[in-house]
Amino acid sequence: MAEQSGTGASGLGRGLAVGAAFFGGVALLGALLGPLWWWLAPRPEVVVLPDGGVFTGASETVFAGEGYFVLITALAGLVTGYATYMLQFSLARRRFQDLRLVGLVAGALGSVAASLLVWRIGVALDGPARELVLAAETGDTVIAALQLQATAFLVAWPFVHILQYGLLDAFSLLRGDQPGVPEPVRADRHPDAEWTPGAQAPNSEDPNPRAQASGTPVNGAPAPHASAPHAPSPHDTTAAPAPEGQGPPMAAEGDRSGPEGPRS
Fold it and tell me: Which of 149, 91, 84, 94 lies closest to 123 in space, CA to CA?
């Protein structure tokens, strides 16, 4: 059974714990991928120069090591972005607590740390090859040590991680399935105010729609459709038939109901 999350210190502590777990898990993956990069990346052959430097040339092997770094970290960003979002989704559903921001920030920081760990661990594992280059004589051809000259590639993991996380959150928003996010309050009609065909629909101009629909007086005035005796109009020219035994009614002086107008 899902638990209702508390507010205040309890919710904050739970969010910090989840964030620390996300950060540690993503950073640990970076530490594991450092040896993988060191093992897969090819090394070019270089020529040692008199000043202690090396000549790498323009072969594709020179850039293959950095290409493997980008490929490994980008795939890792896809995996961590998906895993982080799905984990916070599951936790938010169980605890009824919105953890999207926690997962985004902790995962992004963890991916930055993981990318740095892949770089530093891979380079450190190739330390013996670097010592061989330093000990070589001028003009010797040796295998170069692993290195990452374009440090801008370090943003590949965080960028892909955030992009994957954002796409999943956008898809969840379109579906309307975001656990832990309070639903908007819907203003439902009062259950007593039922509308039936033929009755006047309630609106803002009618303060008491039920009274008008039933024909009861509102503010002392009868409803428009209530049954009431029809008062004769002052301009009604149709005279009522005279009772039996009486003559026709005489028009009063000043009466304009006749066709010839008022009598003089």
Answer: 149
- Note the pLDDT tens digit of each residue in 173-200: 888 876 766 555 434 444 454 544 455 5
Gap between the Cα atoms of 170 and 250, Å rounded: 87
Per the listing, tokens 């290195």 go with 147
**pLDDT tens, 155-169?**
999 999 999 999 999
Q: Quick one: which of 96, 92, 38, 101 has its CA closest to 69?
A: 38
Could you say which residues of the chain have pLDDT below 70?
1-9, 50-59, 96, 136-137, 139-140, 178, 180-264
Please count the CA atoms within 13 angstroms of the CA of 221 that sit on its side-chain side.
Answer: 6
Query: What confidence tens digit (pLDDT) does each residue in 195-209 have?
Result: 444 555 445 445 454
Distance CA 156, CA 89 (A): 24
CA distance 168 to 104: 11
Instruction: Determine the 3-state secondary structure of 87 from DSSP.
Output: helix
The rounded distance, in Å, linking the Cα atoms of 153 and 156 is 6
Q: Three-state DSSP class for 128?
A: helix
* C-alpha neighbours within 13 Å on the C-beta side of residue 1: 2
Write the burial class of residue 137 (CB in 10 Å: 0-12 exposed, 13-18 middle, 19+ buried): exposed
Question: Would the pTM of this model clear 0.70, i.e. be above it?
Answer: no
Cα dihedral angle (129, 132, 133, 138), rounded to 10 degrees? -160
Write out 44-56 in H/E/C secondary structure. Answer: CEEEECCCCCEEC
Number of other CB atoms surrounding residue 237 within 10 Å: 9
